[in-house]
Design a protein that fits this description.
Elements: H1 9-21, H2 23-26, H3 30-45, E1 54-56, H4 60-67, H5 72-78, E2 82-83, E3 89-91, H6 99-114, H7 119-134, H8 136-144, H9 148-201, H10 213-216
Antiparallel strand pairs: 1-3, 2-3
Helix pairs in contact: 1-5, 1-6, 1-9, 3-6, 5-9
Protein name: PUB domain-containing protein
Organism: Naegleria fowleri (Brain eating amoeba)
Pfam family, one: PUB
């Protein structure tokens, strides 16, 4: 099993769980994880470039392969993304930027991208992809027909999802911290016992305290 840096643990665990619980939707189209991977990789490479930390919610490609895919947006929420005050963009503020979180998500996603899928699932994916590509204009026009009310409802749901994720994230964080505390105190207890051993061996003799037993005999 691959070892990961401690800084990755929280997001790595949650991202893996989200993908596993939404395999059907997240893995049905390779584009979904590839887009999320690309977004995170660009920020890792250019952390100070604001343009890489902002995605328009109305972007057709992002809308179709991320916002319309169950569980996909949750992966970005895990890394600090949030909806801006205008409800127009998904952003990650510089103050919330954590490169370790992004690296952890990329690591999980790349494992799934490179992981060979079963033949049946691959056949189903090919069939779905073929149908999607056969009617590109219909897919695009469908995305464009979203009304303001629908977009607002979707954003509301995104905010609800984010709150749930933050609560779950905090729960797992507390568990990880508790595990670290337990591991931290175990070796210190062992070392403290070792340091006490020399004290028990330092015995004093009668001669050390001024009593000469050889003289008392006469």
């Amino acid at each position: 099993m691959k070892t990961i840096p401690p800084e990755w643990e929280l997001v790595h665990q949650q991202a893996s769980e989200f993908i596993e619980s939404n395999r059907g939707s997240l893995l049905s189209s390779p584009s979904t994880l590839q887009i999320i991977n690309s977004i995170c990789s660009n920020i890792i490479s250019h952390p100070n470039e604001e343009k890489f930390r902002k995605i328009k919610l109305a972007n057709p490609k992002f809308n179709e392969f991320v916002m319309n895919v169950q569980g996909a947006i949750n992966l970005l929420f895990l890394c600090g993304f949030e909806i801006d005050d205008q409800n127009e963009n998904l952003i990650i503020k510089s103050g919330n930027l954590n490169i370790h979180d992004l690296q952890a998500l990329v690591h999980v996603i790349q494992d799934y991208i490179t992981k060979p899928s079963p033949t049946s699932s691959s056949t189903a994916t090919t069939s779905t992809t073929t149908k999607t590509n056969a009617f590109p204009s219909q897919s695009m026009s469908s995305s464009c027909r979203n009304t303001d009310a629908e977009m607002e409802e979707r954003r509301r749901k995104l905010l609800e999802e984010k709150k749930k994720i933050q609560a779950e994230k905090e729960k797992i964080k507390q568990q990880l911290n508790a595990d670290k505390e337990e591991r931290k105190y175990l070796p210190s207890g062992v070392s403290s016992k070792k340091t006490k051993k020399p004290e028990s061996n330092s015995k004093k003799t009668f001669k050390d305290i001024g009593v000469d037993l050889s003289r008392q005999g006469g």
